Task: inverse folding
């Protein structure tokens, strides 16, 4: 069995748990990128902003007359055919953000929990086609620990998703 906590010796005879990976994280400063959407071909300006603890990752469509916040969570997923698309409440007719998977992968890999992503179009720029450019962008802004514990979700029973003849089981 793998231990969740790794002991960290902080002084003679004392043991404290290494909690750095168990604290929420956000950016130290604002960073920006400009590029084009892979599927739309549209120019997009993306601004990554620090966010308060327990905010999560929130995409904000600032190109709309009334800005719309779209949280990156399972309830917001509206399409997964050619990319990962989220929209308000998962409603395909609501404002959306497409091709979020490379940025989300970079955030997961670096342990970034809280982030506001301002977008001037409906698709994250593709940059180099991987998460490497997003990792560089996030690291350039700096990542800071927040004074709040990370939140985890435990799957207690099997979950099955079906569409047509396809199915996925977790």
Result:
């Amino acid at each position: 069995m793998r231990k969740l906590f790794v002991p960290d010796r902080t002084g003679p005879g004392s043991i404290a748990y290494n909690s750095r990976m168990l604290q929420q994280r956000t950016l130290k400063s604002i960073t920006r990128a400009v590029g084009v959407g892979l599927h739309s071909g549209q120019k997009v300006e993306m601004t990554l902003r620090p966010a308060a603890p327990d905010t999560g990752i929130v995409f904000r469509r600032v190109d709309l007359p009334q800005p719309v916040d779209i949280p990156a969570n399972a309830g917001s997923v509206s399409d997964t055919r050619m990319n990962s698309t989220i929209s308000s409440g998962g409603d395909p007719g609501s404002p959306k953000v497409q091709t979020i998977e490379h940025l989300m992968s970079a955030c997961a890999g670096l342990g970034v929990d809280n982030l506001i992503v301002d977008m001037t179009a409906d698709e994250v720029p593709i940059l180099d086609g991987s998460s490497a450019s997003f990792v560089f962008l996030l690291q350039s802004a700096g990542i800071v620990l927040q004074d709040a514990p990370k939140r985890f979700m435990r799957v207690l029973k099997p979950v099955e998703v079906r569409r047509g003849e396809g199915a996925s089981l977790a």
The chain has one domain: 29-148. DSSP finds two helices and 14 strands in the chain. Residues 29-148 form a domain with the Ribosomal Protein S5; domain 2 fold (CATH 3.30.230.20). The longest strand covers residues 43-50.
